[in-house]
Amino acid sequence: GTPGKYIYPVQNGSVHRYEGSSFWAKNKNVYIMDRNLGSLNSDTYPSSKQGLVYYQFGRKDPFFHSTSVYKYKDLNARYTAINYDVANNSTNAIKGMAYTVINPLHFINGKQVNNSGFESWIHDDTYAPAAWHDPHAASLGRKSIFDPCPPGYKVPDNNNVWQDLTYQGKKNKNTGEITYKNNKEITTNIFEASDNVTIKDELKRGFKPFMTVKGMQYWPAGDGSNIPQQVIFYPSSGFLNQTSGNINYDGHSSSSEYWGYAWTTESNTKGYGASLVIQPDMISKAMSNRKSRGLPVRCITDRK
Questions:
Q1: CA-based angle 111:142:30, to the nearest 5?
Q2: Cβ distance 41 to 35 under 8 Å?
Q3: How far apart are CA 51 and CA 185, in angstroms?
Q4: Looking at residue 235, what is its pLDDT?
Q5: Which is it for the CA torsion 68, 110, 45, 14, positive or negative?
Q6: pTM of the entire structure?
């Protein structure tokens, strides 16, 4: 990583580094993809929904945005629809990874673990650490064999990857004034169109509201005088519901609120894993999420 540089061109795209966090300062040779795993484009929300894929925590095979069809493109450029089931995790039948390997198109309904309020797709959640956060592989300095990222990349194992992402501002209900955190006025476009944001402020940031662009735009904080042509984009992907497999809160299916997500490998044995969560007026870098939800993945390089 070169100080002050955060976009590095590679074939058919780029890789990124962020600034302002201890993670990137300590890991000079680590980079993150410019798009979510499976996406065909890095800078816009895919209106066709192509490239929006989701993973249940710890599983190696993705799910498309729809619960009824899974699309593969054959050599003749025709699409073939393959129905997949939403399996019901109500018995001991679904315990470990073997079931998911044999049934990669089965989205598994979540079941609460230890009355925690969080649903896991594995009935006995003690199996979960053997998925992405494989302790045996980690002790050998390797990633889990179920990690969906390509060779040389892995699911982030540390939510500090996104430490520099801060939400844009919050409107005071009484005065209408927008206040910011850490004076990072141009870090993201996490504000809603209804917020009291002046045209001058919006031009200074170079951003449109989160709901307008259907996602979060970001570049490292600065004084606003030199807005780059390229920005880092996280689409409002939404998630696959933990008990139905239906899409919730994405940029097309929801008219009220959009959310963006990205998994990390952090987990415990109570039915949840840690993830990045982006909403129109908030970013959480380490929010607990149900392991049975389908969330996107944005891979980082598997080397330090």
A1: 100
A2: yes
A3: 31
A4: 93
A5: negative
A6: 0.87
